[in-house]
Fold this protein.
Amino acid sequence: MTDRPNNQDGGITEPAHPSDDELSAYLNRDNADLAARQRLEAHLENCAECRDRLAELRTVVRLLRGFEHPVPKRSFRLDPSMVPAPLPLPEPLRIDPWIVRVQPALRRLTAIAAVLLVLLVTADILTHRNSSDNGSREVSALSSASRATDGTSVMSAGAAESASKSTAAAAQVPAATAASGGGSSSAGSSAEAPVTSSAATSASSEGTSVSGSSAADATSNEAVTPEASAAALAVQQTEASGQPTAEAAQAPNATTHGSRSYWRLVELGVGVVVIWLLFLTIVLPRLPRQRRS
Amino acid sequence: MREPPTERPCQPGWSVRLGVPASDSPKALTKRGPIVASVQVQPHDRTTRGPARPCTIRLRARQSLLRIALFAVKKKAPFTVVDPAERQLITRAQNGELAAFNELVERYERLVYAVSVRLLRDHHHAEDVTQETFIRAYTSLSQFSGPSFRAWLTRIATNRCYDVLRGMQRRPAQSLDAQLVEDEPRWSLEPPPDDPEQRMLHRALGARLEVALDQLAEDQRLTVLLYDVYGYDYDEIAQIVDVSLGTVKSRISRGRARLRDLLKADHESRELFDAVRRHISDDDTDGERPAPRSWKAERSE
């Protein structure tokens, strides 16, 4: 509102007059904010000169709005002969028609292949979980058996030392041993020194079953824990079947690996098919549009 | 009785929620009154530019519902409220439906023709330009991305008019008023005064105003014509002339001031101007401009 110089009267400065821009904006109801509009209205109340200027601008606007325009004498509606054939949306033209035609079938095929893949993987997991359980059991049995064998040799050495050192402990055990197996030797009774009473009982039963075996065998049988004894039993069984231990462990693993690689091959094949179908279904129809843009 | 808010689409990704009686009757919408509308602008997603959250604007206005929304929204973000029916017609026409496009032609042929006549001062050329405008619009309708269809049409028409004027190598000096035959139908944004004497005064001063308009710079002239004579919005003019909103406002204001000065230049015009000014009493109907969609209604008169 600094369009015109202020009238100075007796040192009192009147508020500045609004510019033509402000008056025009006021006519358009386009003032930036309500406060500015109210300030302008307050000024107009007191300033006859600005009221006149506003009235002049308003007159111009009203005259312009009153301009008369001729009504066209004819219609400008289009008829088909005036315009070229309507341009269809460009996308269908750009895409190869066969892609469009096979899209529904492709989508179905993709879904079927994806389901097949899921089923295959599930079946693979279910099938090989059982076989891998068996395999792991065999492997653990083998490892525990070897551990048990090492352990017994160490333990038997320790037992020999302790037997030579303490005779009191050895003196307690022979009573039980003598009660169960009278044919056991003094080396056997001395080897039983570190074994607990329950172990002694089991050992005694083992000793009974293998009564004809050597003292070293008896020692190894007596020194193992219950699970190790089961492992040893498994080893004995495989030995009894007349096959070497290494071969017995490897044979089932080889068959498992063979079937697994077959499964993997099938899964990979189906996976590749699914990826290709997805590519055909999703990516291919969009390629022309990207190229165009 | 207040009805639940109605939602109207504006630009893609936005909608305007109008908390006013959902009545479209002109009488209800132009009724003088206190606060009549609260407009809520709701972005459809967060990626669209504009106000970060819905804003409710209460305003005093006696304009049409859509113009209220437009005014309110304009204060916060560059929106144009689009008539949903028109949007539907455009979509159908974009799909190659000629009948839908012809409905759009019916809506806007009078306006496009009027602008063309005003610029060319020749009915035959204006008819040709109008027809060409609609043919061009139809063939390149896929390029229309909004927001205002009539602004898009007018841009095509004005460009074509300037091409024709360049081809004619001269600017026609004949007054448009002289070409209007008395008994032919006419239309205007505002009806002439009822008083025959005032009507005569208005017409005489209007003729002088026509002459004054020709003395304006071309960009000012076109902007004033579009805003005051044909009732376009700032946004639409910015779209047609391809300038900023600030430039549009400035051109309108300076154009009006120049017209006033020209009308007051000679003694006879000044007396005429003062007589008309005295008649146009102080009222507050300045901001009330005809709604953009009122053209068809006027057609049927």
Observations:
- Chain B touches chain A through 67 residues (CB under 8 Å).
- The longest helix of chain B spans residues 98-120.
- The first strand of chain B starts at residue 6 and ends at 9.
- Residues 1-14, 18-63, 76-81, 290-301 of chain B have pLDDT under 50 and may be disordered.
